[in-house]
Amino acid sequence: MTARPLPGAPAAEALLAETAARAARLPNPPHLVMVRLGEDPASVSYVRGKDRKAREVGLSSTVHALPETTSQAELLDLIARLNADDAVNGILVQLPLPAHVSEQAVLHAIDPRKDVDGFHPLNVGELWAGRPALRPCTPAGILYLLDHYGLAIAGQRAVVVGRSHIVGRPLAALLLERDATVTIAHSRTRDLGAVTREADLLLVAVGRAHLITPEMVKPGATVIDVGINRVPGEGGGKAHLTGDVHPDVAEVAGALTPVPGGVGPMTIAQLLANTASAAEMQASRLLSR
Ligand SMILES: NC(=O)C1=CN([C@@H]2O[C@H](COP(=O)(O)OP(=O)(O)OC[C@H]3O[C@@H](n4cnc5c(N)ncnc54)[C@H](OP(=O)(O)O)[C@@H]3O)[C@@H](O)[C@H]2O)C=CC1
Ligand SMILES: Nc1nc(=O)c2c([nH]1)NC[C@@H]1CN(c3ccc(C(=O)N[C@@H](CCC(=O)O)C(=O)O)cc3)C=[N+]21
Fold first, then answer.
1. Does the beta carbon of 60 sit less than 6 angstroms from any atom of ligand 1?
2. Which of 258, 253, 248 lies closest to 220 in space, CA to CA?
3. Ligand 2 and 257: CB distance under 6 A
């Protein structure tokens, strides 16, 4: 048996088309502002990809590429100006930040109504309370992908491997909201394979190439591979990307997302959908004040 592939592109295209239609209904194109510090190649490439897609769907997008040495005070000052600017609907500060800048201070500073990453503590709290709010892009994008392919969530045994604030924890919250029975595994989990083998729906966000091997997967399970690992090319050849899930898992799983081309495109599409949501909420607030 070989697992049904779950490519991100068709699901991402559907979400991007919905977003373009919502953007066209607003008086002005939703405006996303992204801020990055330094020249980390992965961050440069991700921000460029988001900026390009934003324009494709009729959003406006501005990138502030600041030097690595930018002080925390300067960054907080920029965020304050973006918060106060009614022409800015969404703000994203690319992570990770340099060590001299407190991630917590930055994420607290962003106006929760413009927090298109869903990382502000107010939005985190609303998420766990099951109330409407801006939701983190990778987890929300994964749920959209599951729905797009008609894969069941309610009543399923879901195992999330990884408990980061950007993927694992919010993903667990969204699955719980959709009535899955959720387990969160992490680096201190004993006998990881025994836990993952219980999963009808296995979602892996760790950042270790090929951590999940076939004997760790229940036959027929749906496997979502969030990991993005850069593997240097052999003998100085070109580097390539690989996931947290071993390719042989395709022989056991019922369905499996590829890396690249799986969850990554969903993250970008969801970010733009969140920007449209933020703009819609702000437009209705401006009308009523
Ligand atoms: N496709 C996409 O859109 C995105 C992809 N990513 C990718 O997803 C991966 C995870 O990212 P992120 O969540 O930010 O990573 P973090 O490094 O923040 O978190 C990794 C998590 O994995 C856990 N972990 C580490 N080793 C093991 C192990 N051997 N067994 C079980 N759990 C383990 C850690 O546990 P503990 O808490 O105990 O330390 C931690 O909770 C990365 O490859 C990243 O590049 C991230 C965001 C978006
Ligand atoms: N404030 C903030 N918000 C984020 O959402 C955020 C962040 N910081 N920091 C880093 C992580 C990572 N992330 C990805 C986005 C797109 C792809 C993506 O498009 N991946 C392509 C491949 C891209 C490539 O070729 O390098 C794919 O999987 O097909 C991957 C990873 C968002 N993150």
1. no
2. 253
3. no
261 lines ligand 2 (CB under 6 A): yes
H helix intervals, the chain? 8-25, 41-56, 72-84, 103-109, 121-129, 137-148, 168-177, 192-196, 263-287
Q: Whose CA is nearest to atom 17 of ligand 2?
A: 264
Taking only the tens place, the pLDDT of each residue in 172-203 is 999 999 999 999 999 999 999 999 999 999 99
- How much distance in Å is there from the Cα of 270 to the middle of ligand 1? 20
Q: Taking phi first (over 0 means left), then psi (-120 to 50 degrees means alpha), and beta for anything else, what does residue 191 get?
A: left
Known catalytic membership, residue 85: no
167 lines ligand 1 (CB under 6 A): yes
Q: Across all residues in the chain, what is the average pLDDT?
A: 97
Atom from ligand 2 closest to the CA of residue 137:
5
Which ligand is in closest contact with the Cα of 51? 2
Residue 218 to residues 35, 151, 157, 250, Cα–Cα distance (Å):
41, 16, 11, 12
Q: Which domains does the chain have, with CATH numbers?
A: 28-111 (3.40.50.10860), 137-265 (3.40.50.720)
Cα R_g (the chain), whole angstroms = 19
Q: Which residues contact 176 (CB under 8 A, 6 or more apart)?
A: 182
d(CA 181, CA 166): 21
How many percent of the chain have pLDDT more than 90? Answer: 94
Reported as a single tens digit per residue, the pLDDT across 109-151 is 999 999 999 999 999 999 999 999 999 999 999 999 999 999 9
